[in-house]
Amino acid sequence: MRPLDPAADTTTVGAVGTTGGTDAGTRAGTARPAVRQLTVSLLALLLVAGGLGLADLGTAAGPAKPGATPQARCVSPQDRPETGRQGRVPLADYVSGRVLQGYQCNAVQVAHQGTSGGFKVERYTDRRGRTCAYYDSTLLFPRDVLFNAVEGLGVIALDMSDPRRPRQTATLTSPAMLSPHESLLVNRKRGILAAVLGNPYTNVGIVDLYDVATDCRRPRLLSSTRSAAYGHESGMAPDGRTFWVAGTGGGNLTAVDITDPRRPRKVFEQTGVNYHGLRLSPDGRTMYVANIGGREGAMDTAGLRILDVSQVQERRRDPRVRIVSDLTWGEVSIPQSAEPFTRGGRRYLLETDEFADFGGDQEVGAARIIDVQDRRRPRVVSHLRLAVHQPAARSGEQNLDPGAQLPVQGYAAHYCSVPYARDPEIVACSMILSGLRLFDISDLRRPREVAYFNRPVLPGAGTVQPTAAGAFAMSRPAWDVARRQVWFSDGNSGFYVVGLRGPAARLLRR
Question: pTM (2 decimals)?
Fold first, then answer.
């Protein structure tokens, strides 16, 4: 497949300084009017109530459209390949019952736990060498309370000493852990588990901090404080001293100093922005923002925003945050997160868009690799997409598949992750109805799919939610590199340990 010419598909709005009304560095506590309050959380509530579609967020369509990433070639004897186009679970498979067998290619189920899941799976090894997993159990609180109460609400802690037999050791039910939405994070350097209360429609910004370094099986609450205006997504400085909160529809970007996790304190807050996932450079001085967008001088559509947050990281008095650059692309839907990694010392991002645009042009953002070596001039290198994401497929019969027409479900991406930040050659993505997808990125300009694992459900079969249908793979995957495993959760069916086989396994170094 001919690689897309990045220059034909992206729009970079160059470096932006701190003058001319484009300064992102409003001083702590200074308000600026919110410009665009379209958020995933509001959409979720509206869609549950009335089945509304997404509005068109992208305006920078390029002359060339990226094609689907080459499909995985299944070589394992345990494979159960998809029956339709890449990523599709056709209506016929629900009618015949084939869907109950699941779909897997160069991947096998090692373990399964629970019947629900949310947006994050985190893996952590404590000071004594015990390994645990943490995952949020609820897609939308309080909608799912009645059903999730069967196995327990909140964030689930699992003892993963034997990944073949996950053992639930704790359920965290402090305010933020009851509904962390997309904010659950573990800082590995300090052993702190953090989240901010989020949804419905952002919710108040209560931040919960737990000690997991002492005994990861039994997290210990250190503090629960109203540290931000609103909560939704988050970020963490690698040194574990700053927890960042994105209020998204609430319009706030907040930095919380957690140097003393028992006494967190707000050190920066900006309003009037519409930010989603926040990821940071290894030194904590550069922030890669999933910008949902708005008309604020330098950018009038969604995409990647790069911020200089060095003054916050240095704990300057009255800190300022500066916009470095903005980037958008023709297929943009709702940017979710942009994870940094390096290849041969050069800096890149693994960026994911969530959901799909049903506003008329049928765009699915899916995922992409962005070169940010020059942070003033980021550029898209390649795309990670499935055949079901392509415009031609979305106008056909796949619209009849269960869940395909729901913008909060549908054939679209949600989160991707890499197994390690230095020279990864494989990527794992949760792609909602299409399940867990694995991509070979050994050639950054020509990714190819290398494995997949999908466990859709029939209504009332294998799920505690009677209206659930299909897969709801929304979580950021976690990695057990030594065992060549990926851990993820599906909102309709729970937590999975997936073993990689064949070419997928060979891409992970021990």
Answer: 0.87
Q: What is the CATH number of the domain that holds 171?
A: 2.130.10.10
Burial class (CB in 10 A: 0-12, 13-18, 19+), 164: exposed
Encoding tokens for residue 357? 């645009």
Could you tell me if residue 148 is inside a domain?
Answer: yes
Tell me whether residue 321 is in a domain. yes
Domain limits for position 336: 6-57+70-506
Please state, in angstroms and rounded to a whole number, the distance separating the CA atoms of residues 106 and 7: 34
CB 503 within 8 A of CB 75: yes
Cα torsion through 340, 344, 345, 347, rounded to 10: -30
pLDDT in tens for each of the 510 residues of the chain? 323 333 334 454 444 433 233 344 433 333 333 333 333 333 333 333 333 223 223 333 344 789 999 999 999 888 999 999 999 999 999 999 999 999 999 999 999 998 889 999 999 999 999 999 999 988 765 556 555 555 557 999 999 999 999 999 999 999 999 989 999 999 999 999 999 998 655 568 899 999 999 999 999 999 999 999 899 999 999 999 999 999 988 899 999 999 999 999 999 999 999 999 999 999 999 999 999 986 443 345 789 999 999 999 999 999 999 999 999 998 898 999 999 999 999 999 999 999 875 444 567 999 999 999 999 999 999 999 999 999 889 888 999 999 998 878 899 999 999 999 999 999 999 999 999 999 999 999 999 999 999 999 987 665 666 677 899 999 999 999 999 999 999 999 999 999 999 999 999 976
Residues 6 or more apart whose Cβ sits within 8 Å of residue 411: 87, 88, 356, 364, 386, 388, 389, 393, 394, 398, 401, 404, 431, 432, 433, 434
Would residue 64 count as lying in a domain? no
| The pairing of beta strand 167-172 with beta strand 185-187 | unpaired
Task: Report the domain count for the chain.
Answer: 1
